[in-house]
Amino acid sequence: MVRYSVITDKNPREIVLLRGFGCAWKKCTFCDYHLDCSPDAAANLALNRTALAQVTGQYGRLEVINSGSFCELDADTMAEVERVCQAQGIHDLHFECHWMHRREIPALRVRFAGLGVRVHIKIGVETFDRTYREGVLHKGIGVSDPAEIAADFDECCLLFGLSGQTADSMRRDIQTGLAHFDRVCVNIMVENTTPVKPDPAVIQIFCREIAPAYLDDPRVDILMENTDFGVGGAEQ
Ligand code: SF4
């Protein structure tokens, strides 16, 4: 699997897909990428070192993802992330985190601030429609107020291309995301091993009526495929 890439257009940054102990939530109905995990800390560290060794610091920005939350990375991998940030002059570091771990975020910010690194935390919200999010997607965010969701986080992911979504609902989700977060990442649902299927008609509506307004917005990433950031696909 490709575990290192460079994003050159919006918010240019390097990105690494690391492997952790596994998502502690694992209940999102659309997700199978939490399967990229191992209980073997030594094996994870070896794999993660290989990915992190490719970081050059060319933009001073690094995104670390691990098919779960940052706190599911082993301690030695986190130490390695710290070392690489210092060695390669990383000043902005992005991690992902589930709502359930939000109380662990302040300590992470303090830890990296001590190294002169600003941490940005991304949460997968998928939609601000709580009924859909919790009833259909089982996301595990038990509050409705977007401001409350955003309180500990800097960026959010949205998931579009699902049956029941409309131009209005998708537009509203992006606008809400931009009102409460620094950046929004729109992921379009792709076929995977879960029973949740992409809805081609909804994807078409997104491409025709929503995407054009945000293609040049530096605060909005749009991933038509979940490998569009360059990681997660098979090695060539
Ligand atoms: S929190 Fe993220 S990794 Fe875990 S099941 Fe949900 S989408 Fe998948």
Keywords:
single chain; 236 residues; TIM Barrel; eight-stranded mixed β-sheet; 19% strand; binds iron/sulfur cluster
Task: Summarize the SSE layout with pairings.
Blueprint: E1 4-7, E2 13-17, H1 41-52, E3 61-65, H2 75-88, E4 92-96, H3 105-113, E5 118-126, H4 130-135, H5 146-150, E6 155-160, H6 167-180, E7 183-188, H7 200-214, E8 220-223
Parallel strand pairs: 2-3, 3-4, 4-5, 5-6, 6-7, 7-8
Antiparallel strand pairs: 1-2
Helix pairs in contact: 1-2
This protein binds iron/sulfur cluster (SF4).
- Runs in which pLDDT lies below 50 for 5 or more consecutive residues are none
Give the total of beta strands.
8
CATH level 3 topology:
TIM Barrel
Shape: globular
Structural class: alpha/beta
Tell me the name of the CATH class. Answer: Alpha Beta
Name the CATH homologous superfamily.
Aldolase class I
Radius of gyration: 17 Å
Q: Spatial order of the strands in the main sheet?
A: 1-2-3-4-5-6-7-8
Major sheet attributes: 8 strands, mixed
Task: Walk me through the structure.
This protein is an alpha/beta fold. It has a single domain (4-223), classed as Aldolase class I (TIM Barrel, Alpha-Beta Barrel). It is built from seven helices and eight strands; from the N terminus they run ββαβαβαβααβαβαβ. The chain has helices at residues 41-52, 75-88, 105-113, 130-135, 146-150, 167-180, 200-214, and strands at residues 4-7, 13-17, 61-65, 92-96, 118-126, 155-160, 183-188, 220-223. The chain has an eight-stranded mixed β-sheet. α3 (105-113) links the parallel β4 and β5 (118-126). It starts with a strand and ends in a 13-residue tail after the last strand. The structure holds iron/sulfur cluster. Iron/sulfur cluster is lined by residues 23, 25-26, 28, 31, 34, 67-68, 98, 124.
